[in-house]
Amino acid sequence: MREHPNVIAVQDALDAAGAHTADDAPSQVIILDAAAHTAVAAAEALCIEVGQIANSLIFDADGQPLLVLTSGSHRVDTAKVAASLGVAKLRRATPEFVREHTGQAIGGVAPLGHPSPVRTLVDKALAQYRDVWAAGGVPQAVFAITYDELVRVTGGTPADVA
């Protein structure tokens, strides 16, 4: 799995950005023993709180991709997010739309390493954790990063999304 093109793209993006964890160690993609398709599964595999998982959710915002990085303990309030962005229609993206804009499949979408930048919102609730964990391009891959670093490396906007 470490040789998967998506994992390599994510690690390359992390390295290029100089991303790091709360211990100031470089953010490194690790491969879990099994795919973690949900925040609960990822949290259990990592022995952390589900809220520390930064779910990467792609939405179709009036035909444009929007990445919302939300705490695993939250559900995105699409009406609230749409109103805050001035978007007429915000809906969960189809698997084809997700792959087209990220190059990655649902369940493993990373917050970076996409073919081109995707507008990103980062759930402010993630800021309460020393480190958060995000997907690394495939369902078995994850990496640790601080909230501030996640905002920086994604070019994201902190937001209340729940």
UniProtKB/TrEMBL annotation:
InterPro entries recorded: YbaK/aa-tRNA-synt-asso_dom_sf, YbaK/aa-tRNA-synth-assoc-dom
Domain YbaK/aminoacyl-tRNA synthetase-associated, chain residue ranges per copy: 35-152
CDD domains in UniProt: ProX_deacylase (cd04333)
A matching Pfam family: tRNA_edit
Matching PANTHER family: CYTOPLASMIC PROTEIN
Name of the protein: YbaK/EbsC family protein
Organism: Paractinoplanes bogorensis
